[in-house]
Amino acid sequence: GDSFTTPLVVEPDETGLLAALGLNAFFQGTDSRTIAVDNNLVRDQGRLASGHSGESADTTNLLRFVAGKQATPLPGNLGFAAFLDDTLADIGFSLQSNSALSDSLGSLKTSIVSERQAYSGVDVNEELICMQQFQKSFEAAVRIVQTNDEMLQELFTILG
Question: 0.90 cut: is pTM over it?
């Protein structure tokens, strides 16, 4: 009843970067017809050896590999895993900060847009009603001036 799955990748190293760095360089070829053990590995089996002497019990290369994991060659006296952890934490913090800043700026934009609409937004119907009120007020003021003028004319005629 046990089972397992594995993802199959057609071209995992399309750029050739891994081969250029000497990683994943055990095989060459692109498909089942052309796959073969890498020529450099065939010429120099020491590249695959677990030790330097060639003895079956020599594991000095494996010990050096394990020591490499514990080495601290990166800035801040960090090993590879610690440097990766720090880098990922920095990226996560920057992402979270930028996301919060983006949300804050989005809220600010929304409030500025609504304030601008409050000052510049014009309701045509409301403006028409205001114009009609001013027009009626102006007509009433004109009638008052005309009536005063007529009264003065009549008064001058009586006195004159």
Answer: no
